[in-house]
Each structure stands twice: as structure tokens, then as C-alpha cells.
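dumping these here so i dont lose them again. two proteins, back to back, each one seq then C-alpha cells. dont judge the mess
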Amino acid sequence: MTSIASVTLDVADPAATQRFYTAAFGLDTQIRLRASDAPTSGFRGFTLALTVSQPATVNGLIGTALDAGATSLKPAAKSLWGYGGVVQAPDGTIWKIATSAKKDSGPATRQIDEMVLLLGVADVAASKRFYVEHGLAVAKSFGRMYVEFVAGSSPVKLALYRRRALAKDLGVAPGGTGSHRLTIGGDGGHFTDPDGFAWEASSLATAK
């Protein structure tokens, strides 16, 4: 079964970006950074989501991200599904921090329960078929709206959402051009999906 071993972000200044992610979210080995000045404009078509246990932890992580230089796109708030907010890192990557809980059950922590790479795609059904053909197993599927794949031992779960719906959820305009500035590493080899997201060969053993 194909799974994600690593996520690489193309950034202008890897050292400064690493300092930001360490200060903002306590991330170290979860993402890779690569120097790049590839042109990009507008919505890059994806978000990285951090799932945590309670609202206090959401607030804490958003607070440290803003203190480290992030920009608020959607202030943390309650919704039908739980509680969460959206920030944009200085390198341009959009991050969503959320919990399904609507009330705190204890003191705030900085523990991240799950990281999800959510790709905004033109046709969820077509992209689902593509990824199944490339060895990913479906965990949840809601027609042409949303698909989530089995993560297994992967540090990052992959999910698909309609691009316009994802942009609306993040509080940004759906248009964008140029590079995604994202490369997904996995044991399925090198390929590019229907929406231009590139995969490269990487294993969990070498990703650690």
C-alpha cells in the first residue's frame, strides 16, 4: 500500500522557515524544506492541517504561530464540526489547526495528534481513482466532495477536497498560478497527479 513518507515545502529561506515551524508548532522532522524561488501566485491548492485534542491547544498553537510571524486567515472559532482556525506561514503555506472537541478537557498542550495534507482538486472522483490506481487505499469517501486515504504508519494522512470548497474553508480566493511549492514523498515512486501535485520516491526509513 502506497503511503506518504515525507512532505517537502519549497521555500525561499529554509533556515528561517525551519525556525518558524519549530517556534510556531514545534515541528522538526515532520516536514522537509528545500530552497526554491519557483514562481507562484495566489492559492497553491493545498493546506496542511494539524488535528489536536481541544480548543485550548488550538488557541495555543495559533498564538505561537502568530507570534512567530504567521498571518491570520480565519480566527479560531466554533463550528458545526468542532473548533479551529487558519493561518498562513511566512513562506506562504496555509495551515489549519483544528479539533473536533468544542470544550476543553484539561490544560492546553502542544501535542499534535495528526497531520493531514489536504489537496484541493478539480475532480474528487477522478483524483480518487488516480490515487487508488497508484496504490493508496481509501479510508473514507463522501462522493465527489471529500476522500481520505489510509495513513498506516505514515506521519502524514492524505485527503482530497474540491479546490473551490477548500479555498472557501480556508478563507482565500480559489485562483492561483505557478508552482504548488510542494513535493510529496512516498513509496509509490515518481509521478504527478491530475492537479499537478508531484510525488517523488521516498520511504519511511529514509524519511526519519
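---- next one ----
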Amino acid sequence: MSLDVPTALLERAEAGRVDDEEFVDCVRRSLPYAWSVVADVAARAADGGRMAEHAVPPPSEAERGQLLRALASDAIRGGLERHFNVTLAFQNCHRVAAFPPALVGGDAHRQFVSPLAQIRNQSPELRNC
């Protein structure tokens, strides 16, 4: 399961009444490691107006799973991007980058999301992550 959804939030969702802040708060509580990684890169990107990157492997498979769930879900990833006002990019189960809106589509963004970057970021120890 991706998120730990409180009963009251689930009831509001079933009635069609969940706003972005409630959703993002559920993500924050459910995926604390992923939240901390995204919050860190987003803050550094906003502070410097440039791409910020996290490339440290997670301490355990549980944390790796949180990153995978957060960044592989369109809804979760989109909520995080709207909340932090960045575009996120992801490689190899742990390499996360945040781009301020002005840099999306620019050289650094295109390079990070390119097939060449993905291939260059491969190594035998990461192949099965």
C-alpha cells in the first residue's frame, strides 16, 4: 500500500472532497523518507534557483520503496511538485533532482532526463535496486 490514509480522509475522498493540502499531508505522514528527500532537493532548488540533486542510496529497502512509490505515482509526484513548486526527475531508485519551473526544458533538465544520463548512471551494484 502506498499511503496510510486515515478513515476521515478516506470518507472525504469517497464523497469527492479532498483538497491538495490534505493529500500532500497524507503523503508527508505516509512516506516520511521520500518526503524528506523531496523537501530537501526542493528547498535547495528554490534557494539557489538551480537544479538540486539527491544521489545517496536509501538506508534500507523500506526507504527505497518510499521513493519508488512517491515518484512512480502520477498523483503523488504531481502533488509533491505542486506543493514544492518544482519539477522532479528520478533515476535508479534513489537519484532525485528538483528543477525550478524556469529550468524545466533547459539544458540541465534535458540532460538529467535523457536516455544517455540514465545509461551513464548505471552500475552493477545498482542494476537490481
